Amino acid sequence: MDVCRYLIVHCLLALTFSKLADCSEVSIVGGKDVKKHQPWMVSIQMNQIHVCGGILIQDQWVLTAAHCQQKPITSVTVLVGSLSLSKGTQRVGILGYEYPKTFNVKTKQDDIMLIKLSKKVSVKPKKIPKKEQNIPPGTKCVVTGWGTTNSEVLKPSDKLQMLEVTVVDRDLCNCYYNRDPVITKDMLCAGNKQENRGICWGDSGGPLDCKKNIVGVVSGSKECGKPKQPAVYTFISEKHIRWINNILKKQFNSTNF
From CA 38, how far away is CA 88, in angstroms rounded? Predict the structure, then answer.
C-alpha cells in the first residue's frame, strides 16, 4: 500500500472510531450565523461589493490573502466591524497593498497580504501571535467569512458565517491534492467531515482561529464543500510573522507607499 493510500485509509478508520479526527472538507457553506461581535473582522469590497474577508491587525492595517488584490484601488473599500454587510456603517478607503514578492497564485505560496487603510479606524484590532503556534492535526478551529452559502450562486452571505473545522495532516492533504498545490510548512489544511460544508467564493482572506489565536488566512480550495478537498490556509508561520512585522515596522511613521 503506498503512503497516500495508507494515510487516507488511516484517516477514514479514525473517522469511524473517533469524533476527534476529521479528514475531509472545511468550510462556511453549511456554517451558522456569528452572534458575537467581532469588530476586527472586515469585508474587502470592490465598488461596494464584497470580494474577500480580512482581519484588522492594527488600527490602519488589514491582513488578508494576496490573491484578494483588486484594482484600481480607488474602487476598493473596507467595511469594518459589522456582522452584516447591509448594515455596516464604518467604510474606509485604502492606500495600497503589501505582499511578498514570492507570492504565486498557482502554487498558493505566500498567499498573504497587508492592506493599508486610508485612515485609522476606531475599532479594536485582533493581534496576530507573537510567535508561530503549534497546531497539530486534529486541532479544532473556527473559520469565519461572508462567502456564498450556496456554491451555485456567486453571492456573498449578508450575515457573517462561522464553522468549526479540524486541522488535517499536511502529508494527507498533499495526498488529497496530489501535491497540486504542494502543502508546505507555511500552509495549513483544515476540514469538516460532513458533506456540503466548505469555504466558497468570498471566503478568501478570512481568519482561521485556533485556540483563540489567528493562525491562518483562507487561501482557497478547488471546490466548495466537497469531501477529500480540505481548504488550504496560509499559515501564520514564523516566516510570515517576521514578514508582517517587517512591513509594519517599515511603514511606521510613514504616510506614503
Answer: 13
